[in-house]
Amino acid sequence: MFFPASVLRTAVLLWLASEINPADCRKHVPPAVTQVYQYPDDTWIENLAILSSRHLLLTAFNIGSGSAAKLLTIDPDSVNPTPHVIAKLGNATALTGISALPGNRYAISGGEYGTFAFVNGTMSLFIVSIKGNPPTGSVIDAIPVPDTLMMNGMVAVPSQPFTVLSADGVGGRILRINTRTRQVDVTWADPSLLGPGGNTALPVGVNGLRIRHGWLYFTNSGQGLFARVRIDRAGNKVGSEVQIIAKLTGPVDLTNAFDDFDLSSDGAAYVALEGSSILKFTSRGVQTTLVAGGQGSAVVVKTPTSVAVEDDGRMLYVTTGGGQVLRVDLKPLKSN
């Protein structure tokens, strides 16, 4: 699919990486990767967030018996880390995005999952209060999101922290949900947010979302893009330009696609690459394959889905579609 230059153009960035092959990324001594937990049935873990208690909050696709999707936490520092269910979320069979809200509350998206899409009319944004150590959770609201087949990555708007943006990778839209008024609208729709179209191996478009210094960063799984756009204080797109940070080479499929990502305080981006890799892009434009299938350790990485950087930048947590929670030690590494 081609776009007019006025809509989508490759820009010269500090993070310039117009076409990348993970095998060509900078060589380095790989960090230590340890497995925190492995589900015995290779459960698909979709997303994670780090709570103030240092426990990890996990979303997944229908774990265990019964139809209700379960919101989970796990203590990565315990002797025997074990996931605990802290809430069951309505009739949802799969949970996707996570975004922290003020007051120890979290926005969680979910619905009844089909194949690369959710059943129309089932998507909701659940508001969950999470407190204590160990954490406990209670669902305090469920905001319906109509006419939507996908809510994926999610991020709160910094100047309006009760408002979240959510990635609709089927409709090619960025949704905005005010968790106080329960109002749902579309901030912008764009060809760069759509999937590749046609009978492709990966029809999903926009996936992960993060906001930093007035930029909305996003991945597009089906198009193999990592990009950013300017936004205003309400989360609306400013101008028409979409700046490309990285574009994958080769066929994009479930073994070669960008998924969720996180940004560290030093300006680096850590991006899950479905297959078995975590890529790092520094603010100076250096690209590194940080983790390649557990290179340098005994851990095999089974389809990374999301990453979260600890506030101090010393640790990276990773979830996978193979039911894993992993820890990557970043202490020996320096941003370039």
UniProtKB/TrEMBL annotation:
<dbReference type="InterPro" id="IPR052998">
    <property type="entry name" value="Hetero-Diels-Alderase-like"/>
</dbReference>
<keyword id="KW-0732">Signal</keyword>
<protein>
    <recommendedName>
        <fullName>SMP-30/Gluconolactonase/LRE-like region domain-containing protein</fullName>
    </recommendedName>
</protein>
<feature type="signal peptide">
    <location>
        <begin position="1"/>
        <end position="25"/>
    </location>
</feature>
<dbReference type="InterPro" id="IPR011042">
    <property type="entry name" value="6-blade_b-propeller_TolB-like"/>
</dbReference>
